[in-house]
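Quick start: what a row looks like.
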Amino acid sequence: MRFSWSETYRRRHGRQAKSLGCAQLFNDHNPPHFHARYGRSKALVSIETGDIFAGDLPRTAKRLVKEWAQSHQTELRNNWIRAQAEGDLERIPGPDGAG
C-alpha cells in the first residue's frame, strides 16, 4: 500500500520526542479522510469536519490536527481525489509552515 505523509512535527515531552504526522493512502475507503499518528496513538480524521471517526489522539494532538485539517481542507480534498486515481499527491505544509 502506497502512502504520502505530510510534514512530521516534533514535540518534546521530557526526554521523549513524539511526532505528529498525517497521511493519505492510495485507494483508501470512504468517507474521505486522512490518517493521523502521534506517538503510539492513531486516528482516522474526516476531511469534511476534521473530527476523528476511528481511533484516538491525545487532546493537544487532536486540537492541532483538527485546526490543520480545517485550514487545509481544499488541499486535502484535492489530494483525496488524486489518491483515489493513484495520482501524485501534493505536499501540504504543516502548522509550522514547513512543507
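That is the whole record. Confidence is low (pLDDT under 50) at residues 1-17. The beta strands are 3-5, 9-13, 16-25, 33-38, 41-46, 52-55.
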